[in-house]
Each structure stands twice: as C-alpha cells, then as structure tokens.
C-alpha cells in the first residue's frame, strides 16, 4: 500500500508545494460538501451508517469517517484532535524562530516539505497497519509525537502549530486514498506541464476491469482529451438491515457504552499531567485537553440505538465487505458508536 522509494523520487520536489496546495484546496471543497450532506444524513440512522462505511471503504479514509460518530457530537472533530492530541506539541509563540527558508517558496522549502510529508506518510501507513483508525487514540498520540521529531530534524527549528500539523496529516490521508484509487494526470495552468502523473491504484488492480476511459494526456506538447484503456471499478454501499433496539436492549446497550467510554473520558487530566501541560491566563491548555476527553461521554444523552448491517458490492453484485455497527440517537440526530466497531474488514487492500 505504501509508496516505494522509487515512486517518491518520481515526484519533483519543486512542484510538491503546488500539488500539496491542490490537495488542500480539494480537501476544503470536500469538507464543505460533507458538512452540507451531514446535516441531512444525521436524521436517518440508515444514512449515517451508510455514510460512515462509504467514507472508509472508498479510500480507506477512517479519519473523515469520524465526523459521523459520537466523537463529533459535542465538538467539531478537528477541535477534538487539536485539544486532545496537538496541544502538547504546539510551539508557535512570537519568540519561536522558524527556519530561514520558511515562507520563501524556494527549492529548499519545497524539498523540506517533501521530506516531512514523505517520511510521515510512511509512518502513517505503519500506524494503520499496527492499530487501524478504530484506535484513534494510539494513532494520533504516536503520529503527532513523531511529526514533532521529524519537523525538528528536517527544518532544524522548534516551531510547530496546528495548521502545519493538520496540513501534513491530512495530506497523508489523501495520499493514502490515492494509493488505493489511483490518480489522474493533473496539468498546470499552461496546459502542457504535468504536475501529477496518472497512477494505477491498488483497488484498480484488485477489482478493476479494463475499459475505454476519456482522460487528459500530453499530445504534441499540449493537453488533449484522449481515450485510454484503464482498470475501472465501483464500490456501492447498501444498508441491508437497521433494527432499533427495544427498551431493555437499549438500557443494556447504554450501560455497556458507558463502561467503555468513561475510562477514556476521564483520561484527559492524566494525559495533560504526563506532558506537563498547565493552564495560563492566555491559554487554558490543560482545561481544553481535559474537556476534550470529558465531552466524549454521551451516555446520559442517548435516547435510542439501532444495529445496522452495511454491505459493500461491486457492479456485478460481488460482495467485498460486510460491516455491522451501532448507531445512536441524541436529540434528533444519529451518530455511529465508534467505541463498539471493528472496521478492519473495510480496509480492503490489507
């Protein structure tokens, strides 16, 4: 699943910042679309379950799938990560000097960015293999600790802010997805410079059937639309069953959920103390960290729960994965219970 060293060297460091910018821009558009879509899916247990599974299976994106879960009930998912896992490494005061090349747009900056992104991508894939994103606590804890070390080693400075951390991590998530789905050629605005080559993804190799596809290519020094043979596949997610729990079943379910979540919700203070984080007048870092974990406990708010089964099929009807999960209702909205789910079967390239 990970890129080979040869693949990485195929990227030209000088244009990596441009590609990273494109990735971030696309990510922002997708997040906006996701936000609007979530408003409507949240009112249906079936749609929430389907969106959660679909997000993971299409590109191995267990990170963004958390936006459909109880983790995001009391705070935006990004705010939770920022307060629970990034705070120990933030060092962005006015007195903290960054490397001289930062912000210059130079080759040196592009190469440093490329090295950090590539190093952390390999580490991200290792963490996925080791833990899977169901164990987000281990993944985020180890990832940002490693990123802090890599930044210092490559940049030679002590600076770190949450924007940089999110930028590297979300780029790794996107790159992993592209390694599964493959990529299309991306041209610069001059319509003759290719800034991203077309690649064949793991899922294309595993499930694709050769078809004629219209695509952009460089012909006689210019971008033109041509027809090429490519491996094509399509995953479809379908909710096969979604049954609401009875009164007694719900009571037992909430008790089990409470037993799972309370130790996690109460762990914030110990984590803050481990890093020596305290509150100051300007930044309540310890309180933010404690509350980030405390707010994970939704046991007193759950009014209903349902068990759902989601099936993933190819166009010919072949079932490639089946996922069982529980969704819970709080107020008028439904959320996936991420404390009681094993999504390893959705990472089809493992």
Q: Terminal Cα separation, in Å?
A: 8 Å
Secondary-structure element pattern, one letter each: HHHHHHHHEEHEEEHHHEEE
Low-confidence stretches: 1-20, 23-39
Morphology call = flat
Order of strands, main sheet, comes to 5-6-7-8
Describe the model.
The chain has 350 residues and is of the alpha+beta class. Helix content is 49%, strand content 18%. The protein contains 12 helices and 8 strands. A 4-stranded antiparallel beta sheet has the order 5-6-7-8, covered by helices on one side. A two-stranded antiparallel sheet has the order 1-2. It has a two-stranded antiparallel sheet with strand order 3-4.
Helix and strand layout, with pairings?
Blueprint: H1 5-9, H2 13-41, H3 45-59, H4 62-65, H5 77-86, H6 107-130, H7 136-155, H8 162-181, E1 186-187, E2 194-196, H9 202-207, E3 209-219, E4 222-232, E5 236-244, H10 247-265, H11 268-275, H12 285-294, E6 304-313, E7 319-330, E8 333-336
Antiparallel strand pairs: 1-2, 3-4, 5-6, 6-7, 7-8
Helix pairs in contact: 2-6, 2-8, 5-12, 6-7, 6-8, 11-12
